[in-house]
Design a protein that fits this description.
Order of helices and strands: HHEHEHEEHEHEEHEEHHE
Shape: globular
Number of helices: 9
Helix content: 25-40%
Low-confidence stretches: 1-16
Structural class: alpha/beta
Length: 295
């Protein structure tokens, strides 16, 4: 498993940060995101409209721009997206898909790119920003990096929509005796040390909620699980390879048993007999607003 702070498609599901993987998962991401968080977001944006009428959205770890493609039609009026990532390939794809776009309501969308380390963003960098967004990012960050993001957003008074963070819940049907051990090893892998950084993995949602609330914001949450069936067999197969591979990387002693396990799972998947639910949670951060959970 590769992890790279500042890109999308968290190591939680991805064997790599390739455009092909991001494209494969885009439909499942779109189906999973919590639509229940959109109305309170729109209320917040309406309460503080931008001076010139154009929403400025900063998408952190934008990947190929899939979150922008999903969200632009759900936001009001003209929009300017600032796309942050460390991978110039992904930035070029994201910008091409968003810049010059017209929303379903007929509003214009423009886009600019910002290549670099998003963990260095501070409140001053968010001046004039209407909304911060991210997808499959929080679990790739450390506690200090999440705290810095919370300080930046709350310091700028900027709401944030942070989607598809893994929470360490995987259910496969039919079940297999090795499911639990693979899942446990995978979660350990997500919490590993990487280049001196202690990744949050499935603890990211709790850590982010605590950090944003400590900085004075209200955090609304909504479940956003992937629910994969026979129609998503290609995605399920790629996810399985990455999931099992990360587990074995974390616990090499699993290797022999995991080989047979993966073969069984892939065979069942190819036959259309495997269903998977991979748990995620979306967070909506509202600095200074009342809140609660959204279901």
């Amino acid at each position: 498993m590769t992890d790279r702070s500042g890109t999308t498609a968290g190591a939680a599901e991805a064997p790599a940060f390739s455009p092909q993987w991001l494209s494969l998962r885009e439909g499942a991401d779109a189906a999973a995101r919590s639509a229940a968080l959109i109305p309170p977001l729109l209320d917040r944006l309406a309460a503080a409209p931008p001076p010139d009428g154009t929403l400025v959205v900063r998408d952190l770890g934008c990947g190929t721009g899939s979150l922008g493609r999903w969200l632009a039609d759900r936001l009001p009026g003209p929009q300017h997206w600032i796309l942050h990532d460390r991978d110039p390939r992904l930035l070029a794809l994201a910008r091409a898909s968003l810049d010059g776009r017209t929303t379903a309501a007929g509003a214009a969308v423009t886009a600019a790119v910002h290549e670099g380390d998003l963990t260095r963003l501070r409140a001053a960098d968010l001046a004039g920003t209407s909304l911060v967004t991210a997808s499959a990012l929080l679990d790739l960050l450390t506690a200090d990096e999440v705290d810095a993001l919370a300080a930046a957003c709350t310091g700028a008074g900027c709401p944030a929509l942070l989607t598809l963070s893994v929470v360490g819940r995987v259910t496969l049907d039919p079940a297999d005796p090795l499911d639990h051990e693979i899942a446990e090893a995978f979660d350990e892998h997500q919490r590993r040390e990487s280049d001196g950084r202690s990744l949050l993995g499935p603890d990211a949602v709790a850590a982010a909620t605590e950090a944003f609330e400590r900085h004075g914001a209200t955090v609304l949450s909504g479940p956003s699980p992937w629910r994969l069936g026979p129609d998503e067999s290609a995605l399920t197969a790629e996810w399985l390879r990455g999931w099992v591979g990360a587990a074995v990387e974390q616990r090499p002693g699993l290797s022999a048993r995991a080989e047979g396990y993966l073969r069984r799972r892939l065979d069942t998947c190819a036959a259309g007999g495997l269903r998977a639910e991979i748990g995620h949670t979306d967070l909506l951060v509202l600095p200074g607003a009342p809140g609660g959970d959204v279901r």
